[in-house]
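Q: Got a minute? One more chain.
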Amino acid sequence: MSAFVEVVFDNSDGRFPTGKDETVVRRTIGLKKDDYSLDRKSSTKGEIGSLLESAGFSRSNPYYIVPQGRITSLTHAKDGERLALLKEVAGTHVYDSRRESSIKIIEETERTRAKIAEDLALIEERLGELDSEKEDLDKYRALDRERRCMEYAIYSLEQED
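A: Always. Here it is, folded:
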């Protein structure tokens, strides 16, 4: 048991960034989960929402119908308020949110890179210590081998006497 809703948009003006003259959005409602598709290809709800917001269709955009008195309040608004309104109407908050998430990813990557560089410095320092310890161990083994040879020689001489 399932049902679907399909909306076909005329995209001859290029409002949707799909590169096609028609954009088809479909939602299939099933018993356990819903499936979304964009131009007959499987998609996620978030991707569909982003596409619609990039084309100017937003749930939070109340500017398709302008109530009486709204124009007057817009003309008396401050520059910052007008800029915020233009951003909201144009749907640029989608790109702002993407930018913020990208900046967070970049910052996290920088922190990870710095930690890796710090760990690498510690490893290189430890390698230097281990190299000097290896040299000391090699010297010890050579001297120990020489000591055992001398002890064996002395023991052999004592046995002969």
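A: Residues 93-160 form the longest helix (68 residues).
Q: Perfect, thanks.
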